[in-house]
Amino acid sequence: MTRTVALLRKELADLRQNRAVFLPAVLTGIVSIFLPFFVAIFVPAVTGEQLSDSSDVEIASRIYRDQPALADLNAEGAIQAWIFQQFLVLLVLTPVAGSMSIAAYSVIGEKQARTLEPLLATPLTTFELLAAKVLGALVPALGLTLACFAAYLGGVALLAQPGVFRALLLPAPLAIIFILGPLAALAALQLAVCVSSRVNDARSAQQIGALVVLPIGATLVLQLTGSFQLTVPVIASIALALTAVNAGLMFLGIALFDRESILTRWK
Amino acid sequence: MVLTAEHLTRRFDSRVAVEDVSFDLVAGEIFALLGPNGAGKTTTLRMLAGLIEPSSGRVRIGAETLSRQNASRLRGRIGFLTEMPGLWDRLTVRRNLFVYAQLHRLSRPDAAVDEALDLLDMRDRAGDPAAQLSKGLRQRVALARTLLHRPAIVLLDEPTAGLDPESAREVRELVLRLRGEQRTLVLSTHNLDEVERVADRVAVMRARLVAVDTPAALRAHLFGARVRVVLVQPGASFINVLRETGFTDIQTNGETLSIGVDDHAADAPLLVRRLVEAGASVVTVVPEQPSLEEVYLRLLQRDARSGAVRS
Question: Which end of chain A is more exposed for a tag (fewer CB within 10 A), N or C?
Fold first, then answer.
């Protein structure tokens, strides 16, 4: 474990000197934060029309006002709460994008800089190496997500109807950020590490790792069309499934990380 | 034996990179691997370092056979200087070394780093990012990293490649110092002068071992013992005198005679006496020593010929 911690510290120190690697995650975070504010605050302010004027979102309004915690919201506030909750799924993309770009860089970057061979010549085991690589990508990506969530909450508290931010502190939204987000990020980055052990450039790893984005996007669309809701039981089921996927990816990652081909086929 | 290679063979798909290579190394020995590019030197070092597995054969570290199960532990007894320095460019020299000190679980990593920096005379550059170092300095840091955990076995892949003459000399001195500490060193290099100066034994390889011996024994085996005599007169005038004395292998080049002998010490005084008695004025008499380069090239030529015959 001490070797994993030593390498993890090195990964974090290296990332501090290479902040450009965070750019995809920062941009994803900004877009994820901006979109719901554009829909719920900016468009009504510019057009002069309230969201509650539209009958399309009446059902959503009713759903939210039925919740005891949000019963005191006015119609506009309830719809805003609905929008900000639905778009919260997009924030999960932040750790996913962050961890993928960092993970792909951290294995392929080592290969390209020819720093992997001396590392493999130490007593470091494959598990220790991959654990450090995975944690080295996950920790900063989750930190960034927390920062984005704090900004999201702050923005809602400042710009939305009074009390709307309480809708983001209910169990389901918190579980999306603190359980689904990290688990999805872990799956994405383990996939990126698996792929980057076998491919020759970071882009290939990122493109294959980006497959994780598809179910997240699909979830958002299904939620917005009203055909699916991320309730606590649904979130718990997805979390269990992601845990199983992550365990499988961990074993796959160790099996795929072929020291010999990394040393002999990488020139 | 500290390190033993037993019939090491390594194939990559259909290509045989290393074929049936065997040798034993004792403590305090410097063993040089020589061979053209693609001869399997780096692959051999990687097998010795436990980085890749042989297709057949085995490596023994002390009494233990290197295997997938014990490779992690046994790698702790080995220091491997890779062909490329492989430093983390954004981190400082000290940080680069400190991470490795921790990976080797050294009890006092800071002290070990200081010691390694002092050994390679790099203390004043400890705070510099590795990216700012010249090629020679990067190689020094890589050497410091290799020796950080005081390994009993040191494998050096092209240790002086790209170094200026002064730095190369310092590395050679370091290698000799390590031998003095009873470390076992395996050196892969194209630098024959370097091998000449430091190696106790030399292995010439081209996938398989072409020859293994001390530089002196390889010379004697390939070229025999010779004495070079420079005269004032043309050497050809004295060939018959020498033949009558029993020296049959004689080459002349102007005033220079190159004479094959059985033993320098016994034969040189006799042939000088005969030459002087025959009226020759002797300017110099020296044992003729072919360079290691000549030995190396002769071995490879002979191997290429025998390879052509085999095929």
Answer: C
